[in-house]
Amino acid sequence: xxxxxxxxxxxxxxxxxxxxxxxxxxxxxxxxxxxxxxxxxxxxxxxxxxxxxxxxxxxxxxxxxxxxxxxxxxxxxxxxxxxxxxxxxx
Length: 90
Description:
The chain is mainly β. The protein has strands at residues 25-28, 31-34, 39-45, 51-56, 60-62, 69-77, 82-89. The chain has a single domain (22-89), classed as Immunoglobulin-like. A four-stranded antiparallel β-sheet has the order 4-3-6-7, with no helix packed on it. The protein has a three-stranded antiparallel β-sheet with strand order 1-2-5, with no helix packed on it.
């Protein structure tokens, strides 16, 4: 039985100040669009660490079913970067 290898993701260096370290995004009609290339998946976590939304293969995710509050968004890219940020759903 062969084992499936899970890609190892790396997080950007905290001290590094580049455009890749910041998620630029906007929400329009309950769709969050991240300005990040080569998105493999997006995960949104509530403040308890529970995954509340996921999206694969695109840079958009529907946040219409989320209640108001603060969330963590993690974007996993095809080049094995993980970019994360907080955002507020109003």
